[in-house]
Structure formats: C-alpha cells, structure tokens
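> tool_call: predict_assembly(chains=two)
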Amino acid sequence: MATAERKERFAGVSDRPVKRFYGPDDIAGFEYDRDLGDPGEYPFTRGVHPTMYRGKLWTMRQFAGFGTAEETNARFRYLLEQGQTGLSTAFDMPTLLGYDSDHPYANGEVGKLGVAIDSLRDFEILFDSIPLDKVSTSMTINPPASIMLAMYLVVAEKQGVAWDQVSGTIQNDILKDYIAQKTYIYPPGPSMRLITDVMAFCARNVPRWNTISISGYHIREAGATAAQELAFTLADGMAYVEAGIRAGLDVDEFAPRLSFFFDVHNDFFEEIAKFRAARRIWARVMRERFGARNPRSWMLRTHAQTAGVSLTAQQPENNIVRVALQALAAVLGGTQSLHTNSYDEALALPSEEAVRIALRTQQIIAEESGVANVVDPLAGSYYVEYLTNKLEEEAWDYFGKIEALGGVVAAIEKGWFQQQIADSAYRFQRRVMNGDYKVVGVNAYVDPDEKPATNILKVNPEVQRRQIERVREVRATRDQKAAEAALAELRRASQTDENLMPYIIECVRSYCTVGEICGAWRELWGEYREESVY
Amino acid sequence: MEAASGRRIRVLVAKLGLDAHDRGAKVVARAYRDAGFEVIYTGLYQRPEAVAAAAIQEDVDVVAVSSLAGAHGVLIPQLIQLLREQGVDDVLILAGGIIPEDEVPALLEAGVSRVFGPGSDLEEIIEYTRENVKR
C-alpha cells in the first residue's frame, strides 16, 4: 500500500503541524457536558444562543466609509437597500488620531481610508434618513471613541430616539492599538480611564450599547498566528474586566456589554476551532475567575471579518473565493455578525460592485448553503475538537507568559506582543518566499500576462478642500462662548475622577471639534510613543 | 552587503504621515537586515521633514517608504523635495504598499525609482536595491 505523501510536513497558515488524520486518542477524556454543552449553555462552545441562526441570522455588517459624510451616507443607504442589516463605520486616519481636517498633519489623508468627521455637523449628515432606533451601528475608532458615541447619542436625540433605544458598538479597544493597530494617542492610564468611563456611563444610560469591541482582527492582520490572536485578545478582555472592577463597577453591570471581534483567515478548521475555543475560555474565566453570576457576562459575542491580509492584488477575482471560504468558517464558528471583504481591497477601498458581491456572498451562505439550518454541525469531529482543545491550551500558555511579564500593559511597554507579532509576520513571509506556503496567483499559478485592475474606487480629491471649508464654517458659526465653556468644563473634569461622558456630550452638542477635544487631552495627558521592534 | 564606497548599504525604512499599517514595513526592514544591509526604521507617524532629516543624519543610501493609507501622492513628493532642497539627490527612493497602478507614474516622475505593490517578493526588493543603489 502506498504511503508516500506530497510533502514531508503539512501545516496551515499558522504553521502548526497537521497529522494525516485524527481519532479518539486525540480527544481522550472528552466530555460533552463539560467541554461543549448544548448550544446556548455554559461553556457556550457550541454557540451563545440555543437556536443560533435558526432563530436569527447573523448580522450582515459591511464596514464602509470614505470621503465626506455625504458620500458615506449614500454608501450606507445603498447597503441597507441591498439587504444589509447593520452599519459599520470606517473613519479616516486624521479622525482616528484626533486631528481636524484642517490640521497640517491631515494633509493628503482626509477622507482617504474612511469618512472624515470633524464635528457633530458631519454626524448629522452621516446618519441623515437612517433611523437610529432600527439600525445598529458599529464604529471602528479607539482614542476618540467616546466622542463618536457622544455624537451618535446627540444625533439620536435629534431624531427623537431615546438613548435606551439605540444600539451599536464602538471599538474603544486601546490595548490592541498599543499591540497592533497603532492608532493610539494617549498613554495607557488616561486611555483606560476613558474606556471605564464609557462602560459606566453606558451601563446606566445606553444599556444596548456594546462599549468595547475587544479586537483580535488587527492583531492577526499585523501578523499573529491564530493562537496568538486568540490569546492576546482574550488577555486584553481580561485586562478590561480587571480595569472595570478596579474602577468600582460590579462585573455583571458591564461585562454583558463587552463584545469581541475576530479575524477569519484561510485555515478553515483552525478558524472554526478558534471561535469555539474563544467562547469556552471566556465563559470559564468570567464565571470562575471574575465570579460573574449573570450568564450574559459569560457569553462571548463576536463580530468577524474575513482576512484582509489574505487578499491578493494579483488576479483579484480569486479573492471572491477566499472570502467565501473564510465567511463560511466564521458562520460555522458561530459568529454574531460578519463583514466580508471586497475582492478589490488589496488595490483600493472597495467599489460598489465589489461590496455588493461581498454582501451577496453572505446572503448565499445564509440562504442557499443550508449551513444556517443547524447549530455547530462540526461538533464531535475528532479534528475540530482536537484543534479547539489545542488552541485553548496554547492560549493558556500565552496567558501564563503575559502574567509572568507583569500583565498586558507591562508586556506592551516591554514590546513583547509587538515582537511576537513581528516574528510571526516575518516567519510567514519567509514561508511564502520559499514556497512552503502557496498563495495562488502570487507564488503559484502566476499569470504572467496579467493586466492591472481598473474600475477601482478613487476618493474625490476635492474632499479635503470641502471638508476643511466645512469645519471652518462650523467654528465660525457656532455659539463660540458655549463651545469654549463646554471645552473648559471638560478640561476641568478631566483632571478629576468624574465620569467624562456627560462633559464630552456637552462639547459635542456645542459643536466642539474632534481635534479640539482630543487636543485638550493631548495637552493634559501627553502622547504615547512606542519603541519600534521588528 | 556593500555599496561602491565599500561600506554596508544603509537603508532607511520609513512610514510617513498618519498611516498606521506597519506590518509590511517591518517585514521589509527585517529582510534587508537579514540580507546584510544596515537598517534604520523610522517608526510610525513621521513627518516628511523628520524623515528627510533622518536620511541625511544617518547618511543612508536608500529610503524605502511604505504607504497603505493613500497619502503617498502628497507625502512622498514632499519628502523628495525636502531632500533635494538639502542637496541630496543620490539616494535611491523606493515606495511600497497599496499604491494604485495609475498613481505610479506621478511617483516615478517625482523621483521614486520603483514602486513595489502587494505580494512583492522580498528577494526581488533586495536584489533591486543592491543593483540600483546610486552611491
């Protein structure tokens, strides 16, 4: 009998060796009730809801934003007309870093990577004709997250929607910014304070708001393996829970509103196992370590996005297939919401046509494939259960290392996460270079006659000029005294331990700009600088 | 890896402006280092003035700019202009990242020698640098 195999060693994108097949010995000691439980039951390995997609499909939430608020509002409305069920906002770099569009540092970057937001005026346009009591909105922003939430609440108020009726998510996850995404502004102390202020304010005033989206996405995209993504993200989550408890909150008061955000990469079974392991670890940590009593505090609810880093600029149509496989893994992993990348994203921001195909991919999985008819169909597979256990074990090894370094913030300050991620990114790139990992169209099945892609989205170069005009007009026409008074009050409160949310809301209401608010904090708190490691 | 002057080729890997995407820049920096180049990485959030000053102070042979946030058309020409104003015109300027094909000619016109897009082979980047370094 032939036993020769195609290669000596088989391994997926995370480079963990894979055996020929898996059997009962690989999951020795497996106990259904302890390790899985039925869907909707502790430890939620099989999913957080008893009915999962039979009850409600996942939220199809495409991340969108470019140019000015008008252009992004049009894209939002287009997506809702196409059957999308939630919104997700991408901001441009100046907004993410707290600079107004007329700041010299914003030159060339306004509206490029997302929508430019300077003041409440932009938010009024962004959500024009979008009913905030019916649509939930996610906003991918971190140091200025509290300001965006404040703007959203004021817009809701103007639409006549009560704060306890609005729902959505702000990313507000500064730890992964220090680790990977790098859109930090302030040092860890005041950054964590902004986050716990939002947690406390929402627990009392905006009960349906997800106050942090604890994100593995950027950690993975920066180069981490699946196990590193899982471990670093959950370690961040535990650090937020500790911070909330230290700030005097009861764990069950804020933990049910913590949500997660994971990447879905190429290695199909590893990704499914990652979601299952994440739920099981979180449930146990919340119940056993933090003593949470509310089952909602034990549940890891998550958004997922297909892996941008896996998309190729070469033969971009192939990305449609990559995205479909990744999206299927996210669904089999039991995600609560999903963004599917557009096939042209290695080239530019997505065109309308590319976004439509990405959304249709989710709709085909939901309506045609049959996978939404049954919950966690891969449970009991020797390989999937082995991988789920293995990822959990690898995550606990990392938790031990992080603990030994003095916790998440200390490990960040030592550059440990950053080095781990840079090492993994480089190792992967070497595998691509030496052909150990094949990327179709890049180091295998290359098309030598490939023509450069056309029909990619171009951000109108007029955007920067128009946006600068608008922010200047806002500053010139607002009640200047009220704006200055609100900002002075925010400055004063920022030097006490009062909750800052009410002051931020007053600033926003008086049309103080993002740059003014973030600038005031820059003066008070200083800026974080990292020691680069590679 | 030696330049014509007999010393190792010095490369400044740079991130300009507010672009936070540093995976590619770090991978390229490390590949240069492993190939025997002397590498200086600027870290994130550098103004063109600071990158020009670092290039001059460190006396580098190559400046490799990574751009994934769309500001390349403004910031890279500014950097080259600043270098020229200070009498530096023999540094090899490379760009990499997400730079649409139709925006490449303007960068070449401005003084970039070559643009490496997503999926570029590290060996090819190193080989190109070795062969085209100007001093």
